[in-house]
Amino acid sequence: MWRRVTLDVHLDHPPERVFPCFADPGTWPDWAPAVELRERLGEGPAVVGSRWSAVDRIVGPFRVRFWDELEVVEPLERVVWHSTAPWNSRVEYVCAPDRGGTRVHADYGGDVAGWLRLVALLPTFVLARILLRDFRGLTRLLDAEDARVEAVAEADPA
Which pTM was predicted? Predict the structure, then answer.
């Protein structure tokens, strides 16, 4: 079942802070609620074609295992990921400076397979609300990092 959801979100952090989070699946469990695991396969720097073993937690105890592959990376601007079955999806994040922060255009599209087709049957506005949780989580993560840096600076004003 083919589904597509597009989001346009403003984050109050610059692209230099936002983009690396989208480009590094290792950080995704820290801010994306459904992401349980992203583990890099292979060594060296992440380049187009690099793959990650992936596990997402869907609706309580249900877990989905698949692979993520880096398809496109344009530093600080655009990253595209492909996820294998059952998601069979492509996710593109485009970041642009916007009012002191970052405008993120996120395009999720895929041909969902198996029992996950039940998720794909949800109305688009419901899927969008679910995906927006990732952006709230990313904002919390970056805000917490800022607070830690500020606390260290206040503790040691040298």
Answer: 0.93
